[in-house]
């Protein structure tokens, strides 16, 4: 039988503190895999271009105030959600057609950042039910202190050492044995290589049609 009938793309999520290097690693990974001819797209949440995304962006930039529950629920709406604004069905059809998605932050960010403010973690997780389950979650591991030393905290609301310490603790609670951890104090080429190997492995597994697209 033709293996490719089953071929589907992989849903790959990168998580980590601010300044852990997610965005640059996602970009490098994406362009390397494009060069290799792998059908792949780079996504990020929250998408600040949507109308709710703009509310969030203004909140993150300290230009508006929202209470913690409201922000959490707004973010929930923007992250891969069914029907709003069609992210989930779009993601699903991309995966089914064989395109791999590299996603810079997913629902774990939502839970980590909101529970870091003291919201109940189960309350934070509840609306995440039914999202597409990633095939691979990679956590770029950096201590909050090291991240702060990297400089370039852009002055957004969450970019503060104390808060990032809390977020880091919440990520430790959230991550399970399936998460792959990369120490981002390694030289950047090594990080890139480790990441690429994990991702290529995952893509191969999904191409073999092992397992359906899961839901969380
Ligand atoms: N963030 C991101 C949340 O608080 N909840 C979420 O659900 C998501 C997806 O938004 F500080 C936070 C995490 C981070 C900010 O920053 C987005 P970047 O620099 O765009 O990743």
From TrEMBL:
Thymidylate kinase-like domain: residues covered: 14-194
SUPFAM superfamilies with a match to the protein in the record: P-loop containing nucleoside triphosphate hydrolases
Recorded coiled-coil stretches: none
Gene Ontology MF terms in the entry: ATP binding; dTMP kinase activity; nucleoside diphosphate kinase activity
Iron found in the keyword field: no
Keyword Metal-binding: no
Pfam family, one: Thymidylate_kin
Any GO BP: dTTP biosynthetic process
This protein's UniProt keywords: ATP-binding, Kinase, Nucleotide biosynthesis, Nucleotide-binding, Transferase
EC number annotated for this UniProt entry: 2.7.4.9
Pathway(s) served: Pyrimidine metabolism; dTTP biosynthesis
Protein name per its UniProtKB record: Thymidylate kinase
Source organism of this protein record: Stephania japonica
């Amino acid at each position: 039988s033709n293996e490719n009938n089953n071929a589907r793309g992989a849903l790959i999520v990168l998580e980590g503190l601010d300044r852990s290097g997610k965005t640059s690693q996602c970009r490098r990974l994406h362009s390397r895999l494009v060069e290799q001819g792998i059908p792949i797209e780079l996504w990020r949440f929250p998408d600040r271009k949507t109308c709710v995304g703009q509310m969030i962006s203004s909140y993150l930039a300290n230009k508006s105030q929202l209470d913690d529950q409201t922000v959490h629920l707004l973010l929930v709406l923007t992250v891969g959600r069914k029907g709003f604004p069609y992210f989930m069905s779009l993601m699903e059809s991309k995966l089914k057609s064989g395109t791999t998605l590299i996603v810079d932050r997913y629902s774990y960010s939502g839970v980590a950042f909101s529970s870091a403010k003291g919201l109940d973690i189960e309350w934070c997780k509840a609306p995440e039910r039914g999202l597409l389950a990633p095939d691979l979650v990679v956590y770029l591991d950096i201590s909050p202190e090291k991240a702060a030393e990297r400089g370039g905290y852009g002055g957004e609301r969450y970019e503060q050492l104390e808060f990032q310490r809390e977020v880091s603790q919440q990520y430790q609670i959230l991550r399970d044995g399936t998460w792959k951890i990369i120490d981002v104090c390694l030289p950047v080429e090594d990080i890139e290589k480790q990441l690429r190997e994990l991702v290529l492995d995952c893509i191969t597994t999904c191409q073999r049609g092992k397992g359906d697209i899961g839901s969380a």
